[in-house]
UniProtKB/TrEMBL annotation:
Alphabetical UniProt keywords: NAD, Oxidoreductase
Name of the protein in its database record: Aldehyde dehydrogenase family protein
Catalytic residues identified in the record: 266
Aldehyde dehydrogenase domain ranges (all copies): 27-491
GO molecular function: oxidoreductase activity, acting on the aldehyde or oxo group of donors, NAD or NADP as acceptor
InterPro entries xrefs: Ald_DH/histidinol_DH (IPR016161), Ald_DH_C (IPR016163), Ald_DH_CS_CYS (IPR016160), Ald_DH_CS_GLU (IPR029510), Ald_DH_N (IPR016162), Aldehyde_DH_dom (IPR015590)
Superkingdom of source: Bacteria
CDD domains from the UniProt entry: ALDH_F1-2_Ald2-like
Family named by the database record: Belongs to the aldehyde dehydrogenase family.
């Protein structure tokens, strides 16, 4: 079996080191002295204990970030030096790619092939992409009135709080650090309590790269009544970037009213993945699988509602279930594993409870529908598909965040056009067709921040990502994320004699 053996575990040293908070360039215990466990979801074993930061630790981190922003060398550094630090961090992440991939798989459960060939390289590319932006930020001169010389300055926002989820721990860090650092902000990051480890290892690499003290601070810990809430309420944080559940997003917005800090949100989704009869069916079957089962369905843009045109429904389902039966489920450290465990017991229970809800609503189970009996340990759920789903059912409206696909048949263009947008979310959608006109019509019709045509889950650091409706606001990636992390100042100079 190709499971990574104990002796090949490159992250053994890291796991045995103390897991402290990164504040002002130093590793420190939480003020309370508290720690919490982080667990391998494939084995249910405790990987290590991690410092449990709280309000006092966030206060310390914000002070350090404020000092680094106002008076530290960071402010005076040329943008080229800033870019070089970011490139160095990217190089160090690449150098430690195998170790970081193992850390991510152990902490999150995802297959090692995904950590190693998706999460780590995309993290590296995101830092490289934004390193390029550091030297390209510009203001403008405006010919408004000849009596005045008018120009704009593009300035960093200041101290930014970043609260990230557990589904792509390392990649979400990169999406948030990349533009924040390129624009010259300082950071207080709170990783998710389920997956704090890769951020701590990248924190070590950031110190090795030479980021000045206080520019990057990491406070591991919990959300409600703890470090997360302390960040969202903080009076001296200028902006909060959040990725997570919609109900947490609402709390973040409410908390932002303390000092009216800027907020950007990337929340949930219930993406329509629409297959027309004229599509390349085999490609669409593969796309449906990637759309819902990648990362165990723990993806905010998962294609969780599969709309199939009625006349291809049966053929499509036969091909889909045949392929899904072959997906190998097991410990993510095994390089043959395609589906790992859910991140936690809580998530496993949540997914299983949605499976029961779907059964109760009258949807038909085409495959899966339970935890695999042969896997005695770990928070696994079999890849699950329901057919005969009606778009109004809870299974079609609520975010399951697991490997559960709802298949909804449709009869014509008008029918699916209406149903696709009948959701409170609007993060993404996809359409499979050989008809160019139909593809573009749908791309413009779907109320979502990303539409994939004849593909699914394609990403690039240069292409913006974010939500319509209750999937949040603000766009990450691309130049649009630079907007989130900069302020524009207009300067008027009186030129009159
Ligand atoms: P999930 O339920 O899938 O874990 P959450 O939205 O609860 O998603 O978590 C995403 C991130 O938000 C995590 O880092 C978590 O600790 C943090 N978080 C949770 N609740 C709050 C809160 N009330 N205030 C600030 N951060 C929070």
């Amino acid at each position: 079996m190709a499971v990574v053996q104990e002796k090949e575990l490159l992250c053994k040293d890291f796991l045995s080191r103390p897991k402290q908070l990164l504040i002002d360039g130093k590793w420190v215990d939480a003020v309370s002295g508290k720690t919490f466990e982080t667990v391998n979801p494939a084995t249910e074993e405790v990987l290590c204990r991690v410092a449990e930061g709280g309000k006092e630790d966030v206060d310390k981190a914000v002070k350090a970030a404020r000092r680094a922003f106002e008076v530290g060398p960071w402010r005076k550094m040329s943008t080229a030096e800033r870019a070089r630090l970011m490139l160095k961090l990217a190089d160090l992440i690449e150098k430690h790619a195998d170790e970081l991939a193992q850390i991510e798989t152990l902490d999150n459960g995802k297959p090692i092939t995904e950590s190693r060939y998706v999460d780590v390289p995309q993290t590296v590319e995101t830092f490289r992409y934004y390193a390029g932006w550091a030297t390209k930020l510009e203001g403008e001169t405006i010919n408004a009135n000849s009596n005045f010389f008018t120009y704009t300055l593009r300035e960093p926002v200041g101290v930014v709080g970043q609260i990230i989820p557990w589904n792509f721990p390392m990649l979400m860090l990169a999406w948030k650090w990349g533009p924040a650092l390129a624009a010259g902000n300082t950071i207080v990051l709170k990783p998710a309590e389920q997956t704090p480890l890769s951020a701590l290892r990248i924190g070590e690499l950031a110190l090795e790269a030479g980021f000045p003290e206080g520019v990057i601070n990491i406070v591991t810990g919990f959300g409600a009544n703890s470090a997360g809430e302390a960040i969202s309420h903080h009076m001296d944080i200028d902006k909060v970037a959040f990725t997570g559940e919609d109900k947490t997003g609402k709390l973040i917005v409410q908390a932002s009213t303390t000092n009216l800090k800027r907020v950007s949100l990337e929340l949930g989704g219930k993406a329509p993945n629409i297959v027309f009869a004229d599509a390349d069916i085999d490609a669409a079957v593969k796309g449906a699988i990637t759309g819902i089962f990648f990362n165990q369905g723990q993806v905010c843009c998962a294609g969780s509602r599969l709309f199939l045109e009625k006349n291809i429904h049966d053929e499509f389902m036969a091909k889909l279930t045949e392929r899904v039966a072959k997906l190998r489920q097991g410990d993510g450290l095994d390089d043959k594993t395609r589906i790992g465990p859910q991140v936690s017991k809580e998530q496993q229970e949540r997914v299983l409870s949605y499976i029961n809800i779907a059964k109760g609503e009258g949807a038909s189970l085409a495959c899966g529908g339970e935890a695999p009996a042969e896997l005695k340990k770990g928070y696994f759920v079999k890849p699950t598909i329901f057919t005969g789903v009606n778009n109004d059912m809870r299974i079609a409206q609520e975010e399951v965040f697991g490997p559960v696909l709802a298949v909804i048949p449709f009869s014509n263009m008008e029918d699916v056009a209406e149903q696709a947008n009948k959701t409170t979310f609007g993060l993404s959608g996809a359409v499979w067709t050989r008809d160019v006109k139909k593809a573009h019509k749908f791309a413009s019709h779907i109320k979502a921040g990303t539409v994939w045509v004849n593909c699914y889950n394609v990403f690039d650091p240069a292409v913006p990502f974010g939500g319509y409706k209750m999937s949040g606001y603000g766009r990450e990636l691309g130049k649009h994320s630079i907007e989130l992390y900069t302020n524009i100042k207009s300067v008027w100079v009186n030129m009159q004699d």
